[in-house]
Structures are given as C-alpha cells and as structure tokens.
Amino acid sequence: MDEPSRQQPAERITVQLGSGTDAAGPTTGSVRLGDLFESAPVALIAVDASGAIRLVNPPAAALFGRTRAAMLGLPIEQLLPERLRGAHARHRQDFMAGPGARPMAAGRELIGLRGDGSEFALQIGLSSAELDGASIALAAAIDLSPYKQTEALLEARVARRTRQLDRRRQVAAGLRDTLELLNAGRGLDEILAHVVRQAAELLDADRCAVYRLRPETRRLEVEAAVGIGRQADAESLPLDADSSLARAVRERRPIQADGGSTVVAGPGESLAGAREPRSRAVEPPAGALGPPAGPSAATAAARDQGRAAEGLPDSGASWVSLALPLLLPRGKVYGALEIGFRSARAFDDETLGLASSLADQAALALENDRLRGQAARAAVTAERNRIARDLHDSVTQTLFSASMIAEVLPRLWERDEAEGRRRLDEMRQLTRGALAEMRALLLELRPTTLAEVPLAELLAQLGEATAGRSRLRVELGVDATASLPYEVKEAYYRIAQEALNNVAKHAQATQAWVEMELESATRGRTAIPGAAESRRLLVLTVRDNGRGFDPLRIPADHLGLTIMRERADAIGAELSILTRPSRGTSIRVAWPCPDEARASTAQGA
C-alpha cells in the first residue's frame, strides 16, 4: 500500500483556483494541496502539462484499482481504454492551452480502465492550478457504474411495465371480443374456437384445447383446439386415467404439469398411456376463482406430458401445461381448458389470473348455451301450450257448436224451415270462423307466411276468426293499401289482432269494424311529425260499439295497449285511441308511406 508521505502532503504551494473573476478581480488563495487531496471524499488526480500524474488521493487509487505508487508518474491516458487514448491526449492539450473550470467531455460518455482491465463509466470535472510554478490540471472523478446499473434497472422496469401494459391492453381487447361473441348469441362451437385461439395468443402458448367430459362414457374428448395434431383431436382420455388432466377434472382444482424428460416418444407415437409426469397443485391468485358452484369457478390445472405432445411433430419435446376445469352451476363439471407450452414456463399470478378469466369465459359460453337451449325449449313448450289453449278455446268450441247445430238441423228444418235456414247460416259462419282461426294459428306456426299473404287477406282472416270465436259481427273495409315493408305489415297485423282480441274479451260489443285506407298527411285526424304535406298515410282503424273505457283508469296488468303503442313506435307510426264509457272505442294507426310506395288494390298488398 502506498504511504501518504511519498506524496509530500505538507508541501505549501500557491494554487490559481480556476480563471473566474468577481468584482475584485482574480480569486487566489494559499492552501495545503496535499491535505486537500488526502481529505477529499472523491477521487482526485493532478496531471501536469505532459500528461503525467503528479498527485493521486486514496479514493482515486481505489476507483482505478491500482496503488498510488503505480499511478504516480503514469501517463493519464493509461487510465483509459486504448481506443480512447489518442483523442484524450488531444483534448488534454487543448485544455492546458486554455485552462479553466468545466466538465470533461460534456455530452459524451467517458470510460475508465481499472488495473484488472475492466472498464467503467466515469464523470470528470476539470479545473486548472499551478504546482511549483507550473500549470496542472485537477480532475475530480466519479464512478457512474452504480448510476448506470440503477438506470439500466429502471429502464428494464419501464420496459417490463410497458410490455405488461401492452399485454393487458391486448388481453382487455381479447376478452372484450369474446364477450361480444357471447352477447351476439353466436354458436357454442364458434365461441369455444375463439376462446382457445385467444388463450394461445394472449398466453403465447403452443397449444390450447377445450376438453368435454362425456358422462355416459366417462371420457374427456377434444371439443375445440389449436396447435394440436389431428391424432389428438380424434382420440379421448379416460376420466380415471393416471394423468394430470383427468386428475384436474376429478379433483376440480388447479394443477401444473411439468413432464421434464421423463416421458419420451417418437414422432406419431401416442403418449396417452404414458406414466404421470411431475405435477403439482397451483393456487390461483386471490379473486381469480369464484365458488365451485358458479360459472366463474374455473381453476388452473395441467395434464401429463404424453397427452401434451400427442399428435405433434416434435412429440419428444418437454412440455409444461396448465389446465383449468370448466365448472358449471350446481357443481357440474363440463370438462377442462388446457394450455400447453413447449418450454419451461413460470406461472405468475397475472398469468394464472388471465388463464382463469379465459376459463371463466369458456364456462360462461357453456352456461349461456345451456340457458339459450333451455329458453328455446321453454318457448317451444309455451307456444305449444298456447296453441293448444287457442285450439280448445276457439276452434274446438266453434266446431262443437257447429256439430250440435248440424245434429238438430234436420228435425228443426222439418218443423220450421225459416229457423232452419237461420241455423244453417249460423253453422256456415261457425265453420268459416273455425277455418279462419286455423289459418291464424298456422300463421303463428309459420311467421314467414305474413310476408307472403297480402295484408288485406290477413285482416279478413282476423275478422272471420274473431266473428267465429265470439259471435261478434266484424265488417272489413279496405279501400286501398300500399307496397309495404315486412315490418310494417307485421306491425299492422299484430295491432289489428290485439285490438280485435280486446274487443272480443272486454268490449261487450255486438259489432266491430276494421278499415284501412290511404289519406293525405294533412287530411287525417292524426298528424305525423315531419311528414310532408304531399306524403300519404296508411291508416288502419279498428273500432267497436262496445262499452268503451276510461283511458286514465287502465289496470297495470293490461299490457295490450302498451304493446300496440310499442309496435307502432317501432315502425315510425302514430297510434291514437278514442274512447268514452258506453260510446265504444276506436284505435287508429297512421304510417307515412315513403315516396317510392305505390298505391295498389287491396289484393296487391
């Protein structure tokens, strides 16, 4: 270790402290330079005009990894990498020619060379002085390595956070796309295929598959997959197999499987029966899993290496897999979502949370599909019951009445021919009403028929069906109509149907009228906002001579008027109701015909 006495710290010298001036002129002072060097906490080096090192303090020796004795007299360029020495010598000469106080190599990175040959980043501050009457350069050096390491660490953190944010944005977009598919009511196969594609993309996985458990065979079969060969798609796995996938479904808990190199097979060889690889249970992040009975209770799991590599060209590769049981309400299990990787993968909380979210979406798609099927079956049952009810309440009763008249008609005709004719006419009305009622029911079973049958004919069928069902006299007056869009035709038909039903059930009327005509936008009683004066209105009116009602005292459970108003609003029509107690009711719907609509005969609707 070099002794401080070799540097003659007690030598008194006169030092010119920089070249700065103040109001009194140049600043000078007498200091003990050796004491300053010895006590300074930073690395200090003094260099003469030739570039030789004259003074070195202990922090400088430690910084460069050399002894002070070895550094004294050494050219300062020896403390720099060889590639920088020539340029540094020129800069040093320029500084000695015009000394002052400034940072060295401003805007450029300085590199120091330690005694062991390693390089490190430096920051240098320069000032000039005089030693024994000769000009010297004083250099204060700071090791930037810790700062560089901190900077690199911060940059790495920023880059990592940026990647995480980008990934989360990508994840959010992917999950949003999946939810849009769910809300759009797409088919289950399409949604599951989308989920496995999203899982493979968002998790950077080499394969992803949804397995379905077949209770009748107790086997797991591939329902949707990406990155898996055709062999795997065609095969199934027994639920009681000694594999991590089957175990995950049986135990309904997360498991990670790392096959390592314990199972090896050649290309095309099935590994479904291979022995169990290393596996462990994986706890999902807090909040990632719901209760086992809910559709959001999907958890993480994995399957064995053999099943992981099945059907892939490089079936001997080491696989890491993560499988997530797909749990449905009431504790039922559908199967599992499996995600596989060809190389080792650490499953952090974020990865497990994302995988759980994808499994939740798959489970939600399954539950939605089940509910849609259930709703469809319930709708079919309800419609079947409604039609059966209508048949019993209308057609059956009408035909029963007609059959009773037919039985007594011969005897009645013999006693009173006039009464017999009246009963015969009544029977004819009943059978026509039953026939119209049957046609109306067929329209309910085949809604597309509404688009094929003219509106005037549809209204006539409604009138006949109502007359046959309720013995109500219905008069139809259709002067003209227009070429109508299907939505308008259906709305008019449904409004007339609801209005006539209300007349038959509540009005206590003896007669009803159904009328339809074209009017100018200014002649009719209903003003249509925004309708041009030259535009024509298609006006449907259903009125009766019944008891009427108070519009302000309609019971809350009577939804017929609300439904009619909603249908009119949906096509841009105006619905008005005129009624008074004991004065009957008139329901009027006016729809502005577009310019291209052509007036036609009633049969041309």
Quick overview:
By secondary structure, the protein is an alpha+beta fold. The protein has 15 helices and 22 strands.
What order do the helices and strands come in, and which of them pair?
Blueprint: E1 13-22, E2 25-31, H1 33-39, E3 43-48, E4 53-56, H2 58-64, H3 68-71, H4 82-97, E5 102-103, E6 110-113, E7 119-131, E8 134-143, H5 145-183, H6 188-202, E9 207-214, E10 219-226, H7 230-234, E11 236-238, H8 244-251, E12 255-258, E13 278-281, H9 305-309, E14 320-327, E15 333-341, H10 349-415, H11 417-445, H12 449-452, H13 455-470, E16 473-478, E17 481-482, H14 486-507, E18 511-520, E19 536-544, H15 560-570, E20 574-579, E21 585-592, E22 599-600
Parallel strand pairs: 16-18
Antiparallel strand pairs: 1-2, 3-4, 3-8, 5-7, 6-7, 7-8, 9-10, 9-15, 10-11, 12-13, 12-14, 14-15, 17-22, 18-19, 19-21, 20-21
- Major sheet: order of its strands? 11-10-9-15-14-12-13
Structural class, by secondary structure, is alpha+beta
Helix content: 40-55%
Radius of gyration: 47 Å
Quick one: how many beta strands?
22
- What average pLDDT do the residues reach? 75
CATH class of the largest domain: Alpha Beta
Q: Give the oligomeric state of the chains in this entry, treating copies of one chain as homo and distinct chains as hetero.
A: single chain
CATH architecture of the largest domain: 2-Layer Sandwich
The DSSP helix count reads 15
